[in-house]
């Protein structure tokens, strides 16, 4: 959405009640610092490894959508065969445990290479379900899960998470 976008609820008469005032839109960008995570050679299947996180504050009296972009370099040693899952989780102040946002994304090597390799791995998702109270702060985190019996190690380097959040002022508060 851009600053000329409008948000209208089909169940209210915002334009008439607010003197035909156009809703305001705000956009914010947040970026995490790059991080590195090393998956041990003998990591158990199901082992998790937290990487980046960042907090996003949603303004009071607004409806927001957040686009989350994750990017990294995955360096695998000679002989690596394995599968890693990447999942974004969200935890807001009123939640006891983090909840997954969008699907999990998978990096897999099914054939061992004679030389090590480095691959760029990235994905994005959109979170338009705030699941939080107005004027709340939510933390998004990326968690890597080892899905293989034997990984022979891997390094996820220069991992960054960024969030672009666009909020539209609600015309009428229910």
Keywords:
174 residues, mainly beta, four-stranded antiparallel sheet, disordered N terminus
Question: What would you say this structure looks like, in words?
Answer:
The chain has 174 residues and is mainly β. The chain has 1 helix and 9 strands; from the N terminus they run αβββββββββ. The longest helix is centred in the N-terminal third of the chain and has 4 residues, at 14-17.
State the share of residues found in helices, binned by percent: under 10%
Instruction: List low-confidence stretches.
Output: 1-19
The value of Rg in angstroms is 20 Å
Please state the overall shape, judged from the principal axes of the Cα atoms: elongated
Quickly count the helices: 1
How many E-type strands? 9
Order of helices and strands: HEEEEEEEEE
Mean pLDDT: 79
Class from secondary-structure proportions = mainly beta
DSSP strand (E) fraction?
over 45%
Q: How can the largest sheet be summarized? A: 5 strands, antiparallel
Distance separating the two termini: 23 Å
Helix-strand layout with pairing:
Elements: H1 14-17, E1 25-31, E2 35-39, E3 48-58, E4 62-76, E5 82-92, E6 99-109, E7 117-127, E8 136-146, E9 154-169
Antiparallel strand pairs: 1-9, 2-9, 3-8, 4-7, 4-9, 5-6, 5-8
Give a nutshell description of this structure.
The chain is mainly β. The chain has one helix spanning 14-17; strands spanning 25-31, 35-39, 48-58, 62-76, 82-92, 99-109, 117-127, 136-146, 154-169.
């Amino acid at each position: 959405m851009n600053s000329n976008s409008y948000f209208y609820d089909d169940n209210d008469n915002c334009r008439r009640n607010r003197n035909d005032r156009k809703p305001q839109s705000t956009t914010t960008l947040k970026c995490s610092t790059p991080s590195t995570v090393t998956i041990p050679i003998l990591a158990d299947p199901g082992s998790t490894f937290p990487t980046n996180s960042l907090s996003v504050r949603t303004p009071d009296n607004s409806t927001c959508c957040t686009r989350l972009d994750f990017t990294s370099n995955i360096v695998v040693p000679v002989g690596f065969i394995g599968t890693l899952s990447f999942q974004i989780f969200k935890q807001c102040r009123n939640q006891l445990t983090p909840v997954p946002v969008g699907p999990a994304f998978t990096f897999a090597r099914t054939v061992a290479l004679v030389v090590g390799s480095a691959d760029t791995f990235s994905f994005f998702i959109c979170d338009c379900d705030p699941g939080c109270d107005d004027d709340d702060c939510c933390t998004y985190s990326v968690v890597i899960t080892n899905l293989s019996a034997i990984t022979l190690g891997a390094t996820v380097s220069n991992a960054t998470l960024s969030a672009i959040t666009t909020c539209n002022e609600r015309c009428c508060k229910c």
